[in-house]
Protein 1
Amino acid sequence: MRKILRKTEIMKMDLNNYELENESITSSLEENRAIIDKMFNPCDDMQFREFVIGHEHPVPAFIVFLDPALNYDVFQRDVMEALLSIKDSPPEGISNKWLIQEKLPMGKVLEAQRWAEVINKISSGMAGLFVEGLNSMVLISVFENNSRTISEPSSETVTRGAQDGFTEDIRRNTALLRKRLHTPRLAIKQMEVGDITRTRINLVYLKGIIEEDLVTEIEERINNIKIDGIVADGQLEEFLRDSPWSIISTVDSTERPDVLAAALLEGRAGIIFDNTPFSLIVPVNLTSLIQSPEDYYDNYWFSSFIRLLRWSAFLTSLLAPALYIAVTTYHQELLPTQLLLSIIISREKVPFPGLVEALLMEMSFEILREAGVRLPRSFGQTISIVGAIVIGQAAVSAGLVSPAMVVVVSLTAISSFSTPSLSLANSVRIMRFIFMLAAASLGLFGIMVLFSILMFHLCSIRSFGIPYLSPLAPVSFSDLKDTFIRVPAWMMDKRPRQMASNNLQRQASGQKPEPPSPAGGKGEKQ
Amino acid sequence: MRKRPFILILLLLLLLMNMTFSGCWNRREVQQLSIGTGLGIDMINLDGKPQFRLSVLALQTTQPPKSGDTSQMGNPATAGTARVITSQGITIYDAVRNWNLRSSRQLFLGHTWIIVLGNSITPEGLGEVLDFLNRHKDIRFRTLVVAYDGSAQEALQAQPEFETITSLEIQQLILQNGPRVSKTGTVNIFQMTYDLLTPGRELVLPRVQLITPPESLSQSQIGIGNTDKNAPQNKVVLVSGSGVYRDYKRVGCLSANETQGMLFIKNDFQTGIIPLTVFGQNYSILLGKASSKIETEYDQDSLIINVKIKGTGSIQEGGSAINEITPEHIKQYEEALNQAVTRICYEALSRSKELRSDIFGFGDKIHRHNPELWKNISEEWEDIYPGIDVNISCDFSIEHYGPVR
Amino acid sequence: MLDKGRIDSIQLLLILLMAELGTSLFTVPSRVIAAAGPDSWISIVVVSGVYGLIVAWVALTLSQRFPTQVFTEYLPDIIGRIPGKILAGIFAVVLMHITSGVLSEGSAFIHIAFLRETPPLLLNIILIGAAFYGAFLGIEVIARHNLLLFAFFSVATLAVILLVLPDINTENFLPILEHGYKPALLGGKDSSAWRGEVFLLIMFYPYLKLKQEASKAAYGKVIVAVIYSTIITMTVIGVFGSVVASTQLYPVYRIARYISIGQIIERIDILIVIIWVAGVIMKLAIFLHAAGIAAATTMGVNNYRWPLLGAAVITTVMALTFFGNQAQSDYFFSNIWPLYAFSIELVFPGIILLLAFLLKKKGVSEQ
């Protein structure tokens, strides 16, 4: 109940200044123009083009459009020339229907009556055609696509694999998706979020594979968002999450159409967003966040190896500094004697306890990393090199940290970059510090207790009803084929059980390629 | 909806407690540690009371200034790697903590490689040592135990020849090269505990000896350089033979050959060279892993123990010239080999009977395979043991003789 | 039911299994070996196996009469409201007492093997805090985490056993039945007390999705536990011999410390510590969940979270008062616990089952 009330309040706030919520446009050209003027004032990039339709009985008309959003070539050729070349009006008089059906050679032309819609469409870049005496008007899409062209996704690069990434334009993004999924099953549902920004959101999924409940759930959650405007997909993500307080993000984002397409094939849904090249994938589980698109381009032996490597790198990035602290301050007996000796010798001059030393290095690394992102690209390179040399070499020779610590920190850093999902890697970055504190206060025992708590937490969170650790806990043995290792494509006959239980079969089974049999085979007969 | 803040507060509380309460109890930064790599235990009489003297071969991680270097304990030549520091106490742990009266660093025994037991340890003392080694939380069961005829401190102060630290050298001598010679056993804390606690077994420890390297002697005799004043101090370690205990009491020693015999019988012989003399010519046989089987035979009142030893060997060195080796020759070599091994075994046996110490664990064997009999004889086993009949038979075969005939 | 979670039979089996193995795998072998020597396998397989199966049968039969309720819920239905509530309350306290025993065992090992100077109270609070979080999240979360933990647990124990295989001396398994059957059977009492922890089924039965698979979980748990503890106990005997092993409080930890393969694979005792901490937390979470639910149903509240918190606090206090020092808790576990466990695991539910049978009391079935 409260939600509905809030919704109407916001709607009023948006439009009731103009008291036009349900008003229709008038038949008077002057009046309409005055209303538009008033509504958009001040709005200097708005243009009015006045003209007449017909030679014998000229009817005054005007077209209103927002200057920067207009594709002038199209406007000139397909709108103005078409309208100005009208010689005669039909016997029953000019109607918008006639204009649309016979005169305007455009793809996307709409007839509209209500001001709310008209204002909306004009502010999103359509041109509005008003004709004297008609109590409706025509909206023409002559939108200039100003977004950048398709380029390589910058945050998820692969060496082998498709190199096209999403752009800021939602239509281009859905086109990229359509290019990969030639099927009527690909459903694209458009929604708008944000009462001011009216950001277009497309919910995409594959009918017949996805669980219908999931679609309704997502739609409901998106529709329940009451917000003035949304500029980042992270905002939307936070509204959509199942466990809002969790440090772990239960929504994945990707810049790559092939990743999205593969996710849809597994029975997940995608949320494509206008104005950002990142689209969201729901539901996710931990194992899917550790997978990289490249895994499916490469040989499965290699992919499996890389995946195991990535899992260990994931654990390393989470635990390595904590383990170093725990081992050097509590459990020295776990190190080989020679290693312990060299650590002791290297730490002789270091004045800080292990925790401070580790925090010092980790913090300076995090600062470096943040600076590297923030700085112009050309500087970034320099800073990282300078940072590495200064922080690493100088800190050691100044006796601030021990060389072993530098090794641990750089190992952690490298490992943390090998996690494909940025949101997961960022959660790990925070958790690493908590683990370090636990290690410093109670050693391995602290780490283990914290790890147990983390495991309890990971087991408890869900992403749109799917347990976060899903193929592992609760275990689903047939889905384990694509987690720590990747089996060959001809063995992955089933879709993930949790996500696509109503349409489990992915492909025909028994497709293992075999050489033609030498005796009596087809090859011999030919 | 309400549960999240609740659990969050709880977790925060936990973390806070975690951080405020602890942080000092068990923390020991590595640079505050002094790593003891070898532990020597002696007993001395102080004020009429027996006390333990603990010698710790501690790794040195800094180079202390020369003037502060106390050369009272050891050879200054070893400074920079490890040196021996001793302390005394009524109990061993007392001595461990007293060690910290002198050392600015905490003694850490998690990396102890060897425990050297001096010959001054009394039976009661050995019991205490056993308990200490079992109860200490850092010392591992794998840590080797060796015996030394003298003060354990001396053994740890010996000059390492190949490694940087004496204790590491002793450990490698036993673990790595011991099985190549099989003239000394391998005993770690667990095996020591096992031998001492299990009825019908006795403890036999490898024996560390200090020798003055013959090379340096000959040099000083010839008179090159004037190193002879250092020569007596440059003692090096040698692990050979074993020290025999009976019921916690050190009763004697086995020579290197006797130890080899013991290893044959105890099924611990790894590899080793057995020299033979056949037809007046010397041969070396390299034996591989030999296996022994002990069977007890009991009828009426005589107890007979049969030991069967099997194994394979190869000729590594044969005679004064390259002779042709025929199957008949091999038979003769095998015969000689069997005799040689049997002789070694009997030597070990008679020595152990002399010491009245059942070093082979025959009693344990009887206990396990014939518990009824053991029930009757376990009380007087020490007296029965010297009188038992042991038949040792060997069956070795020679399989290879190298690339020449 | 206060916990809305649903688990399948494998998850139930593993929950019951970890509710025992979490500590028993590490502490019980030396007690059994001390009593039965090399014949420990007879104690474990024959005595504790049979006892465990009987307890499982009693718990199963009782639960099947009341498939939608936990023990403390239907207790008043059987023996009358007031005595039922009193007995349910006592049962809840007993569960807390057992939990506190687990807690003290758990922190004692950490205290003895690692953090000598950290006060056990702090370790207790931290362990119970983690377990409380797990129990608080509900049975489903426990079940899921438990599955992962069990996988790791098995791999770690298997690794330890495989790595220590070269050190096994088969002579140590002899002599067989040196002192006759008596010690071998008596040794079973220690093992049995833990095997009987399958009685927790009466607190977890309603969460099971397919009730007809309950017997699989109950009997399966006993069999798997018997296999596990036999293997571990015999490994301990094989490596250390029964004489040395019976002197060790934590022989499995000692075995892990003893592992050394070619001076390369060494110092893997860390594995045991990891599964010990994780296993104890899991075991605590399972017991705490049962205790919290028992307390909540006795009080008749409709949210078990506050009773759970209460149970956690009481458990911590109990651990301090009843198991304050090592000698106390060691005495309890070797002398009192077998009888105590016998009465709680078998006698009490057995009497209730008999009463339910005689009075023809039955709960509502699921539909």
Note: DSSP finds 17 helices and twelve strands in chain A.
Protein 2
Amino acid sequence: MMGEKILTKYIAEQNCQTIDFYLAHDGYKALRKALSITPDAVIEEVKKSNLRGRGGAGFPTGMKWSFMPKNPVDADGRPRPKYLVCNADEGEPGTFKDRLIMTKNPHALIEGMVIAAHAVGAVRGYIYIRGEFFKEARLLQRAIDDARGQGYLGKNILGSNLHFDLFVYRGAGAYICGEESALLNSLEGKRGEPRLKPPFPAQVGAFGMPTCVNNVETFAVIPYIIEHGGPKFAAMGTEKSGGLRLFCVSGQVERPGIYELSMRTTLRELIDIAGGVRNGKKLKAVIPGGASAPMLTAEEIDVPLCFDAMMKAQTMAGSGGAIVMSEDVCIVEATSILLRFYEHESCGQCSQCREGSHWLARMFARIEAGKGTHDDLITIERICANMAGQTICAFADAVTGPALSAVRKFRSEFEDHIRQRRCPQKAMLRAPATDSVRGQTHV
Amino acid sequence: MAISQQLKEKIDRLRPNFPTTQALVIPMLHEVQHETGMVSEDSMREIAVFLQLPLMKIREVATFYTMFNKKAVGQVHYQLCSNIGCWLNGSDKLMHHMEQRLKINAGQSSTDGKYTLSEVECLGACGSAPVLQVNEDYYENVDLPMLDELMQSFSSKINAGEKYIGRETYNPEVWP
């Protein structure tokens, strides 16, 4: 199973991003098959695959598609168009897989979206790509133009009665737009502020119309599922999380990068595959599923990377990005950097999140600077309790993930900072590492 | 006139892609910034008139998104990621080096208008950290020697008056 690949099979080959290469390797074959069966049959196949959303929430894709209304009409009885949106606003720290798909395998994404359009009855699709990806957006536009040129997009696709076209929409530097309702607001030309739910996008999505939003990777594996059948994909993963997944490994490992592996893979195996901790150092902590996932200690990594097992371990599989930290890292400083990011990216709509992320960032920076107090640790818990689950979107929960896990699992490091009135790690870097200093660090 | 006729025509061609005019605000802000390097108050007014929207609808969007430069930036805009993945790989040392070399702090522009230095959040390429974005282009796995080489080459490009600085994929010679 280890050797099997879906999305990364050909990425090392030259011109793998072109439509000619894709067609020469069975590209758009799945689309023909999908068009020969009913939309319901397509959704059924996706349900059988146990594919769960690759953006982070892990919602079953087939079920999401089945939520799309069949023949929606407005108050006057006129049909409402349905839209498909691809979330390519990749910005969760530690995650960089969608960029690979868009640059090396863009036609898998396009084919997946056309199949999805057939399944849910969408007339138009938008790929919302983060604004910093200038080159990626141009590559994607070129792929779309090529696909349209060969009849895979546009009117009467492959002679069927499916009409579907695809547009690239560039974001402009806002992490929150990865949240699907903020993304929809941004697509409408508004500030990227998340919406209250319900109504969910399947009822009121882009431009007020029923909309299905999926991640790049989710769409890109659809052709494989249709071509080889849902059960085959399901068998590659765990009981409830089907398939392979693109896992990103970053931070202090020997070979950072993207690894396409079964959802059964454990976090320890993933780190080993990425060459282990750099320079033979010991592992201190891993953030397993993108920055928002609670940290795990070196003792907690024997856990499969599927959604359910990660939830059981009180963290989350999230976007599949593992950030590895060695024994040299100061957890207080690392968390402080993450919180500065969240403070910057909070959209400011809900006061708990706007004020809480700012307060937490200040407090962590203060502790790192050696100016914290023991009361701060209690205040951190209190702020987090007032943030998680209290806001319009999950951003506030994402802030408390790293903050709480750091304070709870690495409490002694925080206490050392407070007691010594300095960062022990930095002090150690400045002074030669004598035994006495080391002794103080790991009280 | 801050916005060219050519740009307006380009936006007109996008109209059929969206059911509302408001959806064109962000694409138009992008185009304006691409053309003039920033989004000025004047250009926001012109966009409002062109799209027939209240000025506030443009301004609230332009100020929400960090990519839109409300102030002028240098010909070369260095944007170094300082988030966790890059920090774990030494981005703080790179930033320090750039500040010394450019004699400005992060968040500032040089007085000759050639350079701007910014600290930015995750650029979505943590597997090849540290990452530096220069105008539109990414440079990955940056270390000190590479940084010196890059900064030298951008300096020469400015002096030679090159047209597509930091926009390799926009250069018609590279990407026909």
Note: The CA atoms of residues 60 and 174 of chain B lie 36 Å apart.
Protein 3
Amino acid sequence: MAKYTYSYYPGCSSQKGASSSNLMKSVQTMCEELDVELNEIPDWNCCSASIGYASGSELPRLTLSARNIALSEEHNKEQEIVATCAACWLATREAAERLKEDESLFAEANQALAEAGLKLNNTTPIKHMAEVLVEDVGFDEIQAGVKKPLEGIKIAGYVGCQTNRPFGIHGESFENPVYLDKMIEAVGAESIPDYEKKVQCCGGALAFSEPDKSQEMIKGIIEAAYDNGADMIATPCPLCQANVEIYQDQINEKYNTKFNIPVVYYSQLISVAYGRSASDAALDGQLIPAKQLEEIAKK
Amino acid sequence: MSDLNKRMIEEYRNDFLKEVEANVEEGEWVKMCMQCGVCSGSCPLGKHWAHPPQEIFMMIRAGKRDEVLTSDSMWMCTSCYNCIVRCPRQLPITHIMHGLATYSKKLGLVPKGQPTATFAEIFWNNMMKKGRVNELKLGLALYFKDGFGPGIKEALRNKDLGTKMMKAKRMSPAEFFGGHGIKDVSGLQKMIKKAQELEEARMKKFD
Amino acid sequence: MSDEKKFAAYICTGCGIGDRLDAGQLENVATREGRMNVVKQHEMLCSKEGVKMIQDDIDNDGVTHVVIAACSRRAKMEAFAFPQTEVAITRANLREGVIWARPDTDEAKETTQEMAEDYIRMSCGEIKQMNPPKPSGQQGRNPNVLVVGGGVTGMTAALEAADAGYTVHLVEKTGALGGHVAKLHKRVPFRAAPPGTPNTPDANLPMPEDTGIEELIKRVEENDSIKVYLNSRITKTSGAPGRFSVDISAESGDTVTENIGSIVQATGFTLYDPSELKEFNYAGSPDVVTNLEFEELTNAAGDGPIKRPSDGKEVKAVVFVQDVGQNSDEEGKLPYDSGVGDLVAIKQALYCKHHNGDDCDTTIVYNNLRTPGAPGEDFYRSGQKNGVIFTKGDVKEVIPGDTLTVKMHDKILDEDADVHADLVVLDVGMVPNSGPDPYAANESLEGMSDEERAEELEAQAEAAAAEEAGGPSVSVESILNLDYRQGTDLPQLKWGFTDSHFICFPYETRRTGIYAAGPVRRPMDIKQAMDDATGAAMKAIQEIENAAQGRAAHPRVGDLSYPTFRKEGCTQCKRCTVECPFGAIDEDEERYPQYNESRCRRCGTCMGACPVRVISFENYSVNTVGAQIKECSIPEEWDEKPRILVLACENDAYPALDQAAIAGEEISPWARVIPVRCLGSVSLSWVTDSLNNGFDGIIMMGCKRGDDYQCHFVRGSAMANERMAKVGDTLESLNLEPERVVVHEVAITDIERVPALIKDMEETIEKIGLSPFKF
């Protein structure tokens, strides 16, 4: 038996060949190291993220998440659900809470679920992987397992929106959460607690539909990281990672900047610090290579 | 535009407010806004809203049905939830904006070509097909939303990005043929259809 | 000096005083220079043993005058009170005033010791000029409280006083008790939602509640200790707290005279009349009503729907226009906001929802929505929850018609809008029911030179005397008809509201023993008025007991000293009678001042006013301070040790200096601080004498003056400032630089600033040189 066991909701973008497959890979490596067992929810579906609302109104949207919870309650009994994607976590937890508050919505959701032969009890806690690390594992335990401290790397901890709001990590402030900085310190790197764009929006899904408006915000996020002397940006959110990393060329072209800063996941930092290879840490999934991490992984 | 969209609304009466309360997600909260403006000041895309959330709430209470439901504003929401956590009255502002967008779309009042509305629809349809999102097809559909010509141009503009993503194994051409999906697609589709029916039945009709 | 006087000085060596100072040397100073009959040291003077030592000397050794050289006079007040003993006491401040204010270093040791020795010398000089204060015996205990006004405030005050065992005479000008509240349908709720009530739209929030006025009236009528006078007015009030004589005259002309201990004035308000504001068409349409008229409409509706006056149509849409004729500098409008109007509008909009159904639309057009008072924000939320529409806007015009049109500018949407309604309710404000302001004429004095001012005051005094024969010629009817030298009614702060030191002493007025409560003091709602009435009743009771014992009301609570004057020296200049901030001083038949000590607050402003220095208190006089100035050592010029005299108001400046020392701020070794009761008591002679004695600089520290004054005696600080304008002449005549004398306004919180002000004077002296008057 592993030290920690959870029911796992990876989400669409974490799948093989998808935009945050590197998150999935590094999370798996990290969990091996921390003795965390993740049991994927069988036949999980998309949560509809933060953009599904327009066509999928309230009840259909909540029902999508209700299906995942119901499947988890049926197949991964007594296990807390853990998500690694900010939107997946938010949508699932949001659904769980809304269906708890509103009995008639809960009844309707179950009526719909019955069409797929499912039933929701809605008694399962919904967690983000960051909560697992902060609350269940703890910073001390994370630090204790570090084999190769990430010395000499200055990292801007970019928490973003949906990992932080409206739920966030228990005990953290919405305006200036510090758990990611603590995590960065725990693996031996230097954090930037005053990084002013820590919880700035990257545009989210509007990076696709409103690229100019979103890239203006992304530019600010990167600029502030450079201003604070960061070597790289680390984030817990797949959409933050993608938006901040992949549009740097387009931003450079538009604003005549020379951005080329790696954007990595916390799980990649932990994997490398725990002595795992660049490939286990999914560093090959970077569009902008995180050379300092690669070098430490090589040692 | 159906007759439903030509309601005669007396200004500064409760007519439209009651409609919003009945038919818009979390709409019953609108009357509780105290007009402090913290939401508007907290919105990362605030400057792009013709009517920021605070104003939208006031417009609903002033009975400005057409202006609200045909507005481009709520489509500027990035779902960052800043407004929700800062609202001193704890209004679920993000959800209300989503709800207004949904209601506007349902009534066919969304401004033509609103990019986020278009993307949202593409996303939903993409996801509903197999129960999970096909990112490749989602991207292509978005590029080609305005037709074949502009689509090729947009795709070419993002060609380098695509190549890089594929090299990093974060985009797969295999997705074009089939790709990820769930096993019980039909169960899921039946479930959603049921949910939509139940919700529709709850909608109040106003004349 | 009479033989019966025996002077004693007690030096405490506790709290580090003995470690930092040479107590033996202090003893020498007290004995040889101070000429004290008894000088003793104690290691902890405030302890039971220390206090007993002093008490024994008083009881057994005939000690009558005591110098306590220990901590500040603000510390250990109870231990050193000796309440059962007739004894004069002063304090030399060696702890906060010396050792805590100076650094504990070798180089500071000498000047610190000198400072302590000076304070011993000064206190020994002072005590010889003091006498044990004792009450004049002018008063007896009079347990009758007069309450003027039979509204909710007056009735509450009456019941509170009666329940506490006092007799109440309650005078109401109309034929019934209840005031405005009796006309209301319901009242704004008295409680907020319980803590933890969520923000959700279905939360359980406070709603309008029954006024409870009938129950209150019944309690008053059934109370044997309350005598109610309906259809009556006060036609004369003379005397002083503890011995007021009040004429109560009924409409019929019958007058009774009652002996009264203290008075509560709860005369409430009159509603502002919007007739002159043409844009609202109040006069033009019966369907435009005031908020009070809307209460009557609701009462008329019974259990049914509210109907509009013009045609009895059930109202389906009501617009509430807020702040009508309020918050405006325009002629004929109120310059203030009554504060409660928005609560009232919410309450009335909820009437509409209750009586006329949920589909009766109610729109409140506000400019600044304010919901002070008990239910506060929760009542606003209650209105929102029930579908009342709130909109920020300016109403431009109300157009009458079958459907009224309210033309407004929506300030949030920034556009003009027409709102249609069956009924329009105007939020009009409260105008206080005060009598004529006795100082209204003094506004004409602003900006005058001192001489002009004195002349004007003289002229006014003469005019007032002339008027006495023919009666007052004021436009506003008097309420109290006070037979006072300074006018018939309570002084006002502004806009007709009575004056009080509203931070420290909210119920006090500028007439001791008369307390204002309710909307005559400031606009307020029922709950606030009832709380206010309770506070005023408590003050009235306190004053009855104080007056019975000849004790002062605050800020000098319990002080038994009172001003007396040397008749043979008095020139009848009337400065004291005119400048007393409390109108305490009348003139007798021979036109000499008459001090009415129970009206007196013991600030000494009369003393500071007297050009011939004939006014004094037993324990505070021109001589007690003069002796301190005289006894302070003035080192020779070549010693290069300047002396800075600090005359510090005991209410704020002196405690601020203590606090500075406690906080570890350093105070100049050259400063010698003398506490004064108020800057208003400062005699110009102290300034002249200290300059003549060789002081190099003088700092006067008093409280803030002006409209938002902090002076505990209201006008004392302002008076001092005016009088000190004359100091320039004195300095000029002595050929001294004007910078040597400064007046500062100081707040109790100015802990860092007060030492800095003294330091500034030290630097000034360094620049301009020492005083040439060192002999």
Note: The mean pLDDT of chain A is 96.
